[in-house]
Amino acid sequence: MPRLVSALLTVVAGAAGWQLFGFIGRQLERRSYRLAAAIVRVLARALLLYGVAAAVLLLLPQIEGLSPAWQDKITIALLTIVTAIVVARLVRQLLSIGIKSERAEPLAASLMQGMVYATVYLIAAVVILAAFGVNISAMVAAIGASGLVIGLALQDTLANFFAGLYILLTGKFAVGDYVQFDTFEGTVEDITWRTTLIRRATNAVLVVPNHRLSTSVVTVFRAAQSPVMIRLEILLEPEADLVRAEECVRAGLEAVIARGDSRGLCAEPPVTVRYGDTSREGVPMIVWVPVESVQQMFDARAAAMRACIAALTAAGIPLVVLRR
Questions:
Q1: What percent of the chain stands above pLDDT 90?
Q2: Could you read off the pLDDT of 124-137 as tens digits, one per residue?
Q3: Adjacency order of strands within the sheet including 283-291
Q4: Are residues 30 and 87 in the same domain?
Q5: Disulfide: which of 47, 207, 267, 300 matches 17 by Cβ 3.0-4.6 Å?
Q6: CATH number of the domain that 213 lies in?
């Protein structure tokens, strides 16, 4: 009877801690402390689970015919299961906060959480089997060797898979965005687990391994962003009149925009002109031009280039080369 009373009190204490920590978690959530609230909610569930587990362990000696050895095995198994549940829920909450983004793919987030769940419960299963005397050394060695062979054989595929998972989870870019990397650029058409499809201005589709994108410096123009700024670089001769060149570029672009005969160029925000480091080759003039949307960037860049060249040539400003 005393053990039964102790078990009931343990369950009551666990339930009380569950309610208390649950209340604290709700208060933290209302104050937008999402990380702290998530951890407290997991601790609340842990108190309840450990309370129930402790009550069961207190009653184990009352079971007739259950040897101390089996009591130890059941204790290890029960505590392992409860700990696995708590750890899995904690990691799930942390992942949910870390990848909670409108641009993150729900399928990728679910896959990541499933992988974490599988890993935690697999470790728990190994611990429980070992506690019950099952020889798992050979099995673990075989799984490890097989995993090494498969990993080496599928090294590139796995690298692309995890890079694709990273891209989908973080939402660094999404379908419809315009990207520039290395010497390539275009509109993202699809992101798969292994490759990303990018449609170039020539209407050709570029198939890029995800690993290359994840290790490259990528400039992203959001599809929903409007307007966007495109960059032109004009290399002027060292003796060029920079003030006059800037005035000509601004006037030429503003005239084209005002006439409305160029697809994509817009008046706001205004054209911005900056200068790079001077070298023996010339003085780089960097011009930022507003474009209505990423879908119009290619046509707008061509129109802006023509306007800049025409304005500078008409004013007699000596050019070296015009480059993006």
A1: 0
A2: 888 888 888 777 77
A3: 272-275, 283-291, 228-236, 319-323
A4: yes
A5: 47
A6: 2.30.30.60
Residues 19 and 142 in one domain: yes
Residue 164 lies in a domain: no
Given this model, what pLDDT does residue 225 score? 67
pLDDT in tens, 100-129: 555 556 666 667 777 788 888 888 888 888
Contact status, residue 209 vs residue 190, Cβ threshold 8 Å: no
Angle at which helices 155-170 and 137-153 cross, to 10°: 90
Residue span of the structural domain in which 27 resides? 2-153
pLDDT digits (tens, 9 = 90+) for 177-215: 888 888 888 888 888 878 889 888 778 888 988 888 888
Are residue 263 and residue 184 in the same domain, yes or no?
Answer: no
Q: How far is 52 from 39, CA to CA, in rounded Å?
A: 20
The tally of domains found in the chain comes to 3
Contacts of 15 (CB under 8 A, 6+ apart): 48, 51
Contacts of 15-23 spanning 24+ positions with Cβ under 8 A = 15/48, 15/51, 17/44, 17/47, 17/48, 17/51, 18/44, 18/45, 18/47, 18/48, 18/51, 19/44, 20/44, 21/47
- What is the value of pTM for the model shown? 0.55
Residue 112 forms part of a structural domain: yes
Tokens of 314: 């008409």
pLDDT in tens, 54-63: 888 887 777 7
CATH of the domain at 309: 3.30.70.360
> Does 160 reside within a domain?
no
